[in-house]
Each structure stands twice: as C-alpha cells, then as structure tokens.
TrEMBL record:
One GO term describing the cellular component: Golgi membrane
Presence of the UniProt keyword Transmembrane in the record: yes
Protein's recorded name: Golgi apparatus protein 1
Region annotation Disordered: where it falls in the sequence: 33-60
Lineage, broadest ranks: Eukaryota, Metazoa, Chordata, Craniata, Vertebrata
Pfam families in alphabetical order: Cys_rich_FGFR
Topology class, membrane: Single-pass type I membrane protein
Cellular compartments annotated: Golgi outpost; Membrane
Organism, scientific name: Cyprinus carpio carpio
Amino acid sequence: TILRVTAAGRVQRLLLLMFICGWIGSAHGGKPDAENPADNLERGKNAAGDGKASALDGASSVRRSGGWKLAEEAACREDVSRICPKHSWNNNLAVLECLQDRKDETEIAADCNHLLWNYKLNLTTDPKFESVAVEVCKTTISGLKECAGVDRGKGYLVSCLVEHRTNISEYQCSQYITKMTSIVFSDYRLICGFMDQCKDDINKLHCGSVNTGEKDIHSQGEVIACLEKGLVSEAEEQPGQYTIKEDCKKAIMRVAELSSDDFHLDRHLYFACREDRERFCENTPAGEGKVYKCLFNHKFEESMSDKCKDALSTRQKLIAQDYKVSYSLAKACKPDLRKYRCNMDTSMPRAREAKLSYLLLCLEAAVHRGQTVSGECQGEMLDYRRMLMEDYSLSPEIVLHSAVMNDSDYGFHNCVSHQLQTLIQETDPGADYRIDRALNEACESVIQTACKHIRNGDPMILSCLMEHLYTDKMVEDCEHRLLELQYFISRDWKLDPILYKKCQNDAARICHTHGWNETSEFMPPGAVFSCLYRHAYRTEMQGRRLSRDCKTEVQRILHQRALDVKLDPELQQRCMTDLGKWCSEKTEAGQELECLQDHLDDLVPLCREVVGNLTELESEDIQIEALLIRACEPVIQSYCHEVADNQIDTGDLMECLVANKHQKEMNEKCAVGVTHFQLIQMKDFRFSYKFKMACKEDVLKLCPNIKKKVDVVICLSTTVRNDTLQEGREQRVSMKCRKQLRVEELEMSEDIRLEPDLYESCGQDIKQHCQNVVFGNAQVIECLKEKKKQLTQQCHQKVFKLQENEMMDPELDFQLMRVCKQMIRRFCSESDAKNMLQCLKQNKNSELMDPKCKQMITKRQITQNTDYRLNPVLRKACKADIPKFCQGILNNAKDDNELEGQVISCLKLKYADQRLSPDCEGQISVILQESALDYRLDPQLQLQCTDEIPRLCAEEVAAQEQTGQVEECLKINLLKISHEGCKKEVLNILKESKADIFVDPVLHTACALDIKHQCAAIPPGRGRQMSCLMEALQDKRVRLQPECKKRLQDRIDMWSYAAKVAPAEGFSDLAGQVFTSPAKNYILSMLAMCVILLFLMGLFCGRITKRVTQELKDR
C-alpha cells in the first residue's frame, strides 16, 4: 500500500512537472493577453486545430505558485464554484471529470465548454504528455508492440495505452492511463485514429459534424452512439440502411470493447442511464462491467427510462455481434475459449467466431459433452443466455425476418421459426429453465408445489413441468410458456441436456451423428430423436437397440411430447394439411392426434404413415398417451399397478384397462380413451401390439394382403374353426396366436363399434331404435337383438349371424358373461367355454341363481328356440332327424333369417310320435320341459296366440311365475280360443304332453307323490310314466291323490276333445296317436284279439271252402 501511495505521488509530481513545462513554453511563446479572453479562446481553437499548442493556450494569465489551475480560469470559474466541490478545485483532472459528468439539467458556459475541449485535446496530443506517458509506462510500452511503434506527437501513444489498459501491469502506468481514459472517451476525436476511419460514415449517417467545436461534450458521446445504431441497423438489414466501411466498423466495435469494463466510458449510455443507475444500481461499484450487468437485469422494469432502455439495447446488440464488448464475459471465458478452440480467427473481431451465439454454442457443447467449463464462465453464459431469451430484438436474424415477411405468409412462419430455433439453441433454456424469465415467472407457483423436490435450476424441472401439463396443478400461463419452449426443444434433441448426455453415444452409433457442433442445417427437425425412438422399442432379434439409460430417456420424452402434436416435428410437418382439413375444431389437449387417428383412412399418404407409426408405438407403450394414463389412474392403481410399474410395456397395460373397462373405478374420460384406442386398433392389426407379435407370421401365411384388424380376426378365427370341425386335421394357426385371437374376439364383443361391418350395416337401425342407448357393455347389440323383428333386412341378417356365433361360443356373448359372471364362477367353473350357456341353463332354476342372470338365460333360451341353428347342441343331436322329418320347412327357409321355431315344432311332433333318434329325442325333451314352464320359450305358440294369451290368460302372464300356468290356462280355455293357429298349437301341446309327463309341469306337480309311489320303477320318457298313471287311475284298488286324479281326468277329457277336433290325418298319424295314447296297452290288446279272431275265422272258413272244393272235384 505504501508503494502504491508513493507511486501515485510520483504520477502527480510528473503531471505537475508537465504543467510547469507547458507554462514555461507558453511564456517563451509570448505573454498571454489577460484582458482579452476571447482572443485567448480563439487561439485555443487554432491550437486545437493544429494539434500542437500547449495545454495552457487560451488560459488566463493568472498564475500561482502551485501552477496553472483550471478552476481559476475566468471562463470556468463560476461553473466550477457552482458545480464542483471545493476540495477538487486544486486538481485539474478532478475539475475536468466533475464538469464532464455534470447532470443534464446543469449547463456550463460555452466559453468554459470550449476551454475544456482544448484542454483535453492538448492532454492527448502534447508531446510533453506523451513524454510523461513514456516515463511512467516505459516498461509497458516496450512490452506492447502495438504502442511501441506509433507515431509520436499525434496523441496516438496515449490512446494506444488506453486501448491496451487491461494488459498494463505497472501500477504507476495503470493509474496514469485510468485518469486519461475518461478524458479520451469523452470525445470520439480523442480516440486514436477514430476520426480518420469514421469521418465519412459520420457525415453519411448525419451523426454530427466533424468540425472542431461545433458539438458539446454530450453530443460527442452521441456521435459514437449514432454510429453504433447504424451498425446494428445494418446487421438487422433494416430498409434504407447505410453500409458502414469495414475500418469504421472495426473502430466502433473496438471502442465498444474498450468501454466494456466501466460504463462511464460509454458516454452516451452514461448520460442516458445516470439516473437509472442511481435508482437500480446505487450500490454496484463501477468497473469490470458490473454496472452494465446490473442495468441489463433491470432493463424491463417499468420505472426504467426509455432513453436508458434504448441505450442498453444498443449495447446488448453490439455484445451479440462481438462477445468481447462484454468485459465480464470475455474475461471469465477467455481460458475456456482458448481451451476448446472457440475463437480461432482472432484477426476478425466481427467474424463468426466473435459472435456471442457462436461462443455460447461452442461452450454449451463442451458442457454437454461432460467437459469442464469454469464456474465463473458458466455464470456469465447463464446471464447472457437469459438476456437473449428476454429480448428477441437482440437476435438480428429474427428482427430481419419479422420485418421482411408478412404475418399471413406461410414462409414467414418457417423463416421466423428457424431463427427462433437458432435462438433457443444459443440460449439452451433446457439446461436451466431460469434462462427463460417469462417461463420462470409464469411457472413459479407450479414449481413450488409440483416440483419442489427438485433442485432449483436442475434440467429435470422442465421434465417435471411437462409431467404436470394439463393437470390441476398447472396454471394456464405456465402451460402456454412451457409449450412454446418445448416446441423448439422437440426440434433439436441436443436442447434436452439429459437426453443428450444419456444418448449421445447411441446417436453416434445408430443414427450416425458425431457430436454437438456437427452442422445440423441439413438435418430435418427431430430427425435424430425419431431415429432414437424407432430403435427404443426394438427386440434383440430386430437388431441394434438403445442402451438402457437412453431408452428410459427416450420413453420419458415420448410420454411427455404425445400431449401435443406440435411437439412432434415430423407429425406436424407431414400432417399440416390434414390437421387443417379434418381437425381445425379440435383444440383441446390430445384431441388433434385422436382426430388424425379417427380419419386415418382419409389422410394423405405421408401423414397416414407417420400417424400409423405413432399409433403402432402407442400400442406397445400406452403410457405415451399421458392424458389417458392420468385419466385412468384410479383403475391402474386398483387393477393394473403391477403391469404399469413394469418399465417395459408390451401392450399389457392397455389389455388390463380393456379387461377392467367396466369396473366402478373407471371414469368416463378413461372409458372414452380406452374405447377410442380400441376403435383405432380396428383400422390396422399392427395397432394391437400383442396381437401383432403373436400372429404376425400366421397373418403373413394365412391372411396375406389383409390389413384391417377385424378382417384379420375373422380370417384367423374362421381358419381355427374349420380346422377344429375337420377332425384329425392339425391346427394351422399357432397356439400363441390362438390365445391372443381369443382375447381380441372377446374385446370386440364388448362394443358394436368394434365390429365395423355390423356397425355400418345397422347404423340406421341404431339411430331409429337404440338412439338413447349408450355404447359399451354390448348394450347397443343387446338393444338390436331385442328389436330384431323391427330391423332392416341387412341389419337383421348381421345380428342373426352374430347370435349364431355367440351361441356356438357363449364366451363371445358379452352381456351374458357380464351379467352371469358370478353365477359362472359358482356353477360352471369347470365347464368348457363352449358349454357355458348349457351349464347355466341346467342351473337356471337353482335357488342360488341370481335373478338377473336367470332373466338373461331365459332371453338366450327364447333366442335359441326361434331357430335350431341358434342351438348348436340341438343341431348336432338332430343332424339326421331334421332333414328327414322337416325338409319341407328347410326348403322354404331363407339364409340368415329365423325359422320362428318351425323346425323345433316339427321335431316336437315327431317326439310325440316317438320317431326321433335317441340323441335328438333327449334334446327335444329338454326343450319341451323348458317351454312347458315358460310359454315364451315356444316361439310358435307365442306367434299364433299373440292376441289370445292377453285376452284369456292376463293374470297368469302378469304373475310371471314360469311354472306352466299360461299353458295350463290355454288348455283349460281351449274351447274359447277362436284363432285356429293358436288352437292348433294348444292341441299340439296336449299331444306332446301324452308322450311324457315332464312336458306337463302342472300335472307332474300334482302327481309327483303318486309317481313316486305307483311308478317309481318305471323310467321316464316315451309316455311310460303317463301310462302308469292312467292304469292306476283305472285300477279301483289304487287310490290317487285328489289333485292328481282331478288333473288326470281333465287331461283325458282334453285328449278326447283333441281327438275329435283334430282327427288323425293318415295311418302314420293314427299309429302315432295309438302309441302315444295312455290306453295304448288296452288298444293294442283289443287289436291283437281282433287279429287272432280274424285268423281263427280264416282258418275255420278255409277248411270249409276246401272241403266244398274237393267234393266238386270228385264229381
């Protein structure tokens, strides 16, 4: 410290010596005229013009023992006493600084102003001052080649030392040059060579006159500011801009660079921002660019003055063109720039290497590669990245394209988008979200609540925000800001630092990229990431795969970006036209992609391809559908958490969601999303990942050229069925495919929309008959079944075909399986899927049977009895009987139309005649027993007696007891039935009841005890037990129960009436009646006696005739 004080004293003494020498020289040159200061000032002007006059030219003759003092000059005495503190009056440089830095509203006399100018000019040009500089800075000058060889006497030496002041290590020299710096920078004409290089440009740009003394000191700083603005305008290619000469450009940038450490040296900015500095940066010390940075940080404050804001913007734009204009950035990053070879072309300060953007990209690349960049430099980079993000006007390319293009022009968006993309690359907000101040402010509340567990500034903050996009925690402003930033990050994989770190080796190995600085101008947006995600889901058999860490990151980003089509560059680029054509009204989150999927067949080929690929990818990893996963969170937590926790999703999660689609935890959003995905899968079998992987080879072999999933399922299921029916034939469809095929068939049965052919055929019928029925749970299909008689021919045929398939495979009957799920577990857990309905029918009347399930079983029985083809068990059992006895009905039948129970009625009559095969008889017996209990199971009776049943048996119908009371009512009221068709059906029932007592539930119930006692040893069937009861009725030794006796007597009367009303139509019918008659044994006995009698009579008559004949011969 003592040495520094001593050195400072030496400098002051040298300056004092210089003033004395100047005074002596002036005395030799002639005595000044104290009485005429104006003449002295004029001589000062001339001296300034010559550049060789003494520093004392123009001074008054007042001389003191302490030397010449600026404060004592008549021209400035009043101003000095008014403006400058008294303690500075004895120091000419302090007075000069005081008068230079006065406030705007404080004016000084014109004579004083000019005196100051002459004084400053002489300080820089007088050889005596140069000799002081040579004395004080001897070692420094010899070490600086640039300053050692300059011409002496022109002021160049002092200006040169000012330019290289950062390289001065001598304390004495540094102190001297620091004092001189504020003087030099107060006027552009005092800067070494500046006027020579920029004289023409100043005049062309009308920045001010170069004639001596015509501008005051304030406007001198404005001249440089004017030139700087001209340089910025040229960079932005503003209309009518003037091209500044290259030498002047270098001089302007050099001045800006030299004034980078102390804002006092940028005279225009200093005066424009002096009050703002006191307001915002009062405690910020000058030097090392600290005041600049402080003012930059407050640039957008409301209280910041416009003139200061404008001056700061100009300074920032110069920094954007040459990073060295920022003292702190150039100093902090100098070693790193040299280390990573980021500024090779040092001879061109405005070359590409000098631009701030190049420096940021180069050093960011080093950071992303894991190389070390000093913390001080990274801090500076962070500040300037934030600066670029806050003010787009600092990027001249954006300003240029925004000014040139029209907003309505599509090219405008492309150009500006490209320049904004470059800006995002330069600022790299993905590495630290705080760089984007607008995002930081908008998302502060979300970060504090949803992402508080993540360290402030961590790149994972952006990932966390994306995960909470469109959730309750997200706010609208943050959502918009986040999507704006993600739009650009999604177009350059390097802007996601975590992805780049984890995947740079994979990208180089698989996608042929080679580092951060690899030029990417010719690479389509998002191309590298597209390459990565195509390899992320490859199996080992499919070739090269990503590393585990990289795959995890790729999946993370896919899950986040699927929220908005704009975050998928390839999708947005290829589908721009289709988005406008089909999806212009779909503005909600996730709706645009759903819309494209819905119109997949209508899209242009390029768009269809990219949407198809994305949908195929979703089928493998449904978590890409982030909105769907959020909506389905309750179901996933309850039923699918094990599958969801598995990082390698292979379609299991979606399969689980479909399987649990109708659980109580399933909300409407989730159900709609799952159904939508199911519908999309119908468009292409590739969209169902598990089905694709299980059946790919089978499809290529057995169903080539078929694309739609529903057609593939039909093709494969038909093949499986045919192979099954042909006994002994080996299955052509692989086992794994058959299993998955089963899953797909079951899923398709749940919603009519998953059966496109059926849905299309019945579209009009659904609108007419099932308009208010909700899709899902097979409710629309059930509605169509119930309205089957009212359907159009086309729809009716499709529904009949569907029912035929369901009866052959009850597991495909979604409503039956859903309603009877618990009953199946209770009664049919060991039954084969094909026999499920049969098992349920057998347990239908159990006390433990659920009423809803019982009702559903009855519905299916009614359906089965309308057509033998809907009863596969009956069809198989009566395969030979049907064409034998009912061929006439088959000849008149139409394909895919019900026979309304005609074939079954035919078989019932043959059952009564006891002419059926044993298997067929057994099945018809079951049908007769079931329909005897519930008249609705007899379609012909229901059809023929539509009017009679409500008229005659309304009470029995209303009771819904299903104990045969309706049939009993019709039998009792047989004489009241007017409709011939109905009467015939009732007579048929009577006829059938004679064949088996089980067919007559009322009689069987009444006589159950008597059967047990009287006919226990007689097997049921073929009228045997009925005959036993009739014989017991006639046997006076047997006492039957009164109710049984009464019912039997009623049946005999009914049969007698039936015989009269409907006599036998032929011998076979007569024989049938005899064999089915309860008095069969009696009738047969009487017939046998008649035959024997006839035989005996024949024998007797034959002998008589023979004897007569013999007598005649003898004659």
